[in-house]
Amino acid sequence: MNRKIILLVDDDNDDAEFFKWALAGTEETFAVKFVDSGDAALKLLSELDSLPDLIVLDAGMPKMDGWELLKLIKLDSRFGNVPVIMMATSSRTKGIDEANSLGAAAYIVKPSDFGELKLIMQQLCIGVQTNLNAALEHMRSDLPNTIYTFSQIQ
Fold first, then answer.
1. Any residues with CB less than 8 A from the CB of 52 and at least 6 apart, and which?
2. Contact 51, 5 (CB under 8 A)
3. What pLDDT does 151 receive?
4. SS3 category, 30
5. How would you classify the pairing of strands 30-35 and 4-9?
6. pTM
7. Which has more confidence, 116 or 74?
8. pLDDT of residue 1
9. Distances from the Cα of 8 to the Cαs of 43, 115, 121, 124, 142, in angstroms?
10. d(CA 134, CA 139)
11. Sign of CA dihedral 133, 135, 136, 141
12. What is the average pLDDT value for the chain, to the nearest integer?
């Protein structure tokens, strides 16, 4: 069976642990790769035999923040078509607009509730397996102040 690859880029260890818990039980279907910096993400992307099916990217990281990493990913012909979901703690319009203009598929406000995070991650997993656009739109209708969708995913 060919597992789908999800790359999670987040410098916050607590957030990374929450993501791991939220994705528990998906190991047969998904290979989840975690890195804690933009540099590590670019290095891993260059080394992977298969590109990720989805990149979930924290906006606020030191050194190279998520915005700079998103720019570099989208400009690189090797991985520019991989859908990227930006995640941040803020729902400020500026961040949402920037994610859109840089080519993210969606912007998700990080939930403080673990149950909501688990639901979001499960829906993203379903979307990666079936139709990511449809999954994002479905989540957006359920969580309009948390999920912001942009462009169609190729």
1. 5, 6, 7, 33, 45, 79, 82
2. yes
3. 65
4. strand
5. parallel
6. 0.90
7. 74
8. 55
9. 14, 18, 11, 12, 23
10. 9
11. positive
12. 87
